[in-house]
Write a structure and sequence with these properties.
heterodimer; A: six-stranded mixed beta sheet; 11 strands; about 55% strand; B: about 110 residues; mainly beta; seven-stranded mixed beta sheet
Amino acid sequence: QQQVKQSPQSLIVQKGGISIINCAYENTAFDYFPWYQQFPGKGPALLIAIRPDVSEKKEGRFTISFNKSAKQFSLHIMDSQPGDSATYFCAACENTGKLIFGQGTTLQVKP
Amino acid sequence: SQTIHQWPATLVQPVGSPLSLECTVEGTSNPNLYWYRQAAGRGLQLLFYSVGIGQISSEVPQNLSASRPQDRQFILSSKKLLLSDSGFYLCAWAPGVSNQPQHFGDGTRLSIL
């Protein structure tokens, strides 16, 4: 049972454009939503995270938008750069501390 | 600051051989520890997690086992590897309180021949 659905599976964006990745979840008990960035051959690195008591969190060029009623959240990468090319995973945290990951989005930013 | 180490980085093993992958965390105490497997181009599958020494929870029945002999050491093992055990194995740690981010090591690429 896939509890966190992530889309799109892959994304191509021109340099300077906005990259948008969407996630939807089912379990209303999730209360922490991190995004991870993974480069080939490396482990995922925490990028940004949000708790459901806020609707938006911004850190530099990265913004999470959170819609609690729709059970959806998204990552926006402003002014996308070739160095942002990576695989991005959304996740949702259970109260046990376990993370449920989305299937990942491979982002390619063209120069 | 906290750091997590995994080794080896790559490993090629024959079918039927044993396996031992090690993960250690520095700079923190009583962390929660996790083992994940990532198939090529796929998401992360949680295999085991531990909230303390000797405490192991298994998420997926399989050919692997995990142990936590020390507070900051997590070991993934197998007695006899299968072809299907190939993959990218990742260890992660999180503070031992709820809803804290997990931090990953750089993984072990395991190839079974």
